[in-house]
Amino acid sequence: MTLVRVEGLTHTYQSRPAVDDITFTIEEGRIVGLIGPDGAGKTTTMRILLGMEHPESGTIHLPEEDHSHWIRSHVGYMPERFSLYEDLTVEENLWFFATVHGLSEAQFREKAAWLYRFSRLEPFRTRRAGALSGGMKQKLALSCALLHAPRLLILDEPTTGVDPLSRKEFWDMLDTLKGEGMGILISTPNLGEAEHCDTVLFLHEGKIMLQGSPDQLSGRMEGRIFRIDTETDPRALREEVRRMAPHIPCYLGPDGLRLAATPEELSPIVSAGYRIEGPLSPRLEDAFLATFLGIRDREAL
Hints:
By secondary structure, this protein is an alpha/beta fold. It has two domains: 2-212, 3-Layer(aba) Sandwich (Rossmann fold), CATH 3.40.50; 218-293, Alpha-Beta Plaits, CATH 3.30.70. It contains eleven helices and 13 strands. The chain has helices at 42-49, 67-74, 90-100, 105-119, 134-146, 164-179, 191-194, 214-219, 234-244, 267-271, 284-300, and strands at 2-13, 16-27, 31-35, 57-61, 75-78, 152-156, 183-187, 199-204, 207-212, 225-229, 250-253, 256-260, 275-277. Helix 3 packs parallel to helix 5. It is globular. The termini are far apart. Residues 4-230 form the ABC transporter domain. This is ABC transporter related protein.
């Protein structure tokens, strides 16, 4: 079932397009990821969906005509910054949000027992939130967002600053919620996390530049990803390649300097005596960086 359908959403901020004619859907049991640099429109899109800001044009379709009621009843939200009460304990924070959502004490006890098992926060229920690690704080924030059993979760960069183990545990929790039919909209700067999403939207200056599954997006780069085999310092090599072929996106990967181009476009580099390997198996990172760097380089020319 479709939980959210966005059509032609547009919103300006200080005379600049923060969101520019975007269209996408969020389905039950699916994770949609918003990817892009700072200022791409990720947070603004979420704020519009939550009713915190109003677009100049476009339409948002929800399962109920009364959008405010549906959002209050069926949406859980985690902002980018930790927004719980640090001087309250884990259990006191949960109880506070339970009262906000109108849960009875019996309903709270039943829900809290499940959340403690789900988040593994049971041993820390009497610890103040301010004394929790970054990963535990995010688990607590997620638990508070889940108290009223939402059908849709909206998460704004929830794992920023979290250690790798806590990040994995957080995504394990999201995968479990997805398996239970919850729809999830998440923004992240981490391309490794984007691999967990069913649909990825790459935003740049408010526009959707790429949209599809991770496999679909990486598949767009099939036959176009190459690597320069050299012992030269990779950063110096990158600058040299940019001078020889300014139209070719090039970036540092774990295996060296990667290039996004056709074999014909690589001829100036081959003529300069560099040995090129490929084509290589493309990754989601290749689609993202090739698109972003391509935009930047075109704007610079």
